[in-house]
Amino acid sequence: MLDNEQRISIGFRYSNCFPFFPNVPPAPGMPCQGEDRSIYRRGARRWRKLYRVNGHIFQAKRFNRRAFCAFCQDRIWGLGRQGFKCIQCKLLVHKKCHKVVRKPCLSLQQQQQQQQQLQGAESQTIDRNGDQQLDPYQCGPATHLEDEITESPIIEEHSRDRIGSEEGEELPLDTLNEGDTSNDMQRQYSLNDFELIRVIGRGSYAKVLMVELKRTKRIYAMKVIKKSLVTDDEDIDWVQTEKHVFETASNHPFLVGLHSCFQTPSRLFFVIEFVRGGDLMFHMQRQRRLPEDHARFYVAEISLALNFLHEKGIIYRDLKLDNVLLDHEGHVKLTDYGMCKEGIREGDNTGTFCGTPNYIAPEILRGEEYSFSVDWWALGVLLYEMLAGRSPFDLTGAAEDPDKNTEDFLFQVILEKTIRIPRSLSVKAASVLKGFLCKDPAERLGCGKRPSGFLDIVAHPFFKAIDWEMLEQKQVTPPYKPRLDSDRDLANFPPEFTDEEVRLTPDDPKQIEKIDQSEFDGFEYVNPLLMSLEDCV
């Protein structure tokens, strides 16, 4: 059963998603002609949480340059240097340091009593600027470190308490520009280097444009993120993670890679590969369901992409039809790494409650810590959608019943409902679906210790016809090739995006003044491999 905290999410209904249909419903609440309620675009989210360690209740906060970690004494600011603050004793620490705080939390009243008893004691030190500073292993008031950056007025969606769970280790700053050379660093890009052509997508945090690099006439996709949306609490963390995963993915055949990154005072820009064939959501809304050999091909290529990420210590956490793109030949490319979790080694777990509701694994809903297992669950959901033309968690009449049309009810169904496999599917297809959609992650297909977990997928009878070596080299002919008239053909992208006006809203000077630009130092990046290719043009 879901706990009371999870029931807070009842306020977030699928009515907040706005699919578009060309017809008018016969009556309010009735479906439009041709409307299929089973496949919608749904955005991924993170539910913000509290971290409990030794009585402390830590919450992610943004600080200015005067904030120091009470454990390691280092500053807490800048890209990838997020801080935590105990909401009870006001202790400030790095995100990476909060688990190793040894002293228990003291209430403010206890702190005042302790201070009176320990006036002049050696538990307090003086830094070089004359500010009072805490002993790294003591828990006391951080009065001199109260210069928090004012939080932006974004409504917190959901808080989940979790003991000792951590979203991730801090990455060294030099990894942000890994692979850069001095020549690459001399060539930086700006918005003036690109022609904005069309809007091709929009998500919870970003807009995606089709652009042309003026110097080479090459077509790219440009992901645009407003800084005002990512300077609050933990949000800047996923910007760094997405950038690093884009860099890691740049040489893989089934992952979208990064060309460059740059920024303006108000926005961050990712210039990435443009994948012309559209996404599987677009094609599924027209095909309704796919033949087994088509689905087998796509799932096999996705499996190779997921296994590559897992070998690099990355949990993808946002596999869905919207994020599976097809290139001009029909091969798969995964995109959107904003939900990824880095730094996961064999035996490591994480605990963030995040994802797209329809694809969230049962272990996340149960509040358990998890690892790569959640990606194989999501792959099972995606395969079911491709073969059956609907979600495995759709219930007859749910759309007309307001009590059933909630995330709370959906989560209950994921946890408790027995998944029914359509009788029209082959025995092998039913078997692989049961393997991926096992609610126990220890028994789920693909979840054995590496490398045996992925080898279990390769050896499954459903994939017997796949030559995995040829597939990885893109030597297997895709079952479907998108129709494209030119490099700029947008026939495979939803018109609700492509018909949108291509413009960036004017900057608001008042909003820009609130942004600490130093937090985005080191964001600029140029992919040296792509740069060398462009030099040959």
TrEMBL record:
EC identifiers of the protein: 2.7.11.13
GO molecular function, one term: zinc ion binding
Domain Phorbol-ester/DAG-type: 55-105
Record has Cytoplasm as a keyword: no
Positions annotated to bind ATP: K227
Top-level EC class as recorded in UniProt: transferase
Entry-linked InterPro entries: AGC-kinase_C, Atypical_PKC, C1-like_sf, DAG/PE-bd, Kinase-like_dom_sf, PKC_DAG/PE, Pkinase_C, Prot_kinase_dom
Family annotation (SMART domains): C1, S_TK_X, S_TKc
Region (Disordered): 148-184
GO BP annotations listed: establishment or maintenance of cell polarity
Protein name: protein kinase C
Species of origin: Pogonomyrmex barbatus (red harvester ant)
Lineage, opening ranks: Eukaryota, Metazoa, Ecdysozoa, Arthropoda, Hexapoda
Gene: LOC105427360
